[in-house]
């Protein structure tokens, strides 16, 4: 059992490392995740943040429009994220994936109550994601 926790911690650490260090300057090549894995982590983080904002900022309609407008891209990215976790540890990959997504939502939830500009910033993100100025 201890091995699973250690394995998960290293996978989450790897994904988090890729998430925070990935940028347009090629850092992805130096991380333990492939660029498509790191991008899937970034998309999952964005989606979880927007989902939390839908409830915390009382803007479920904007989130629904976002999900409908980008359904295929979100599904494709989510599959890539699941594949990443399955490749890292097939026996517990699904559980690791679910735990990771939950942790992303928890981080966004904490951010929503600690950042006084959270709703304003997310509203701007919704507008950009939906092609509005």
Distinctive features:
single chain, 133 residues, mainly alpha
What percent of residues adopt helix (DSSP H or I)? over 70%
In round numbers, the mean pLDDT is 80
As residue ranges, the low-confidence spans are 1-13, 15-31
Rg measurement, Å: 15 Å
Task: Tell me the number of structural domains.
Answer: 1
- What is the first-to-last residue Cα distance? 50 Å
| Overall outline | globular
Approximately what portion of the residues adopt beta-strand conformation? under 5%
Largest sheet: none
Order of SSEs: HHHHHH
The count of β-strands is 0
Structural class computed from helices and strand pairing:
mainly alpha
> How many helix segments?
6
What would you note in describing this structure?
With 133 residues, the chain is mostly helical. The N and C termini lie far apart (50 Å). It is built from six helices and no strands. It is globular, with a radius of gyration of 15 Å. It has one domain (2-129).
């Amino acid at each position: 059992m201890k091995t699973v926790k250690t394995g998960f911690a290293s996978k989450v650490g790897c994904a988090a490392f890729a998430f925070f260090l990935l940028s347009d300057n090629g850092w992805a090549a130096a991380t333990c995740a492939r660029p498509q894995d790191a991008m899937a982590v970034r998309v999952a983080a964005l989606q979880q943040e927007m989902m939390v904002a839908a409830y915390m900022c009382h803007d479920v309609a904007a989130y629904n429009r976002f999900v409908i407008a980008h359904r295929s891209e979100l599904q494709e990215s989510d599959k890539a994220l699941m594949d990443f976790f399955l490749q890292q540890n097939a026996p517990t990959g699904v559980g690791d994936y679910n735990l990771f997504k939950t942790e992303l939502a928890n981080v966004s939830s904490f951010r929503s109550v600690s950042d006084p500009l959270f709703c304003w910033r997310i509203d701007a993100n919704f507008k950009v994601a939906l092609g509005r100025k």
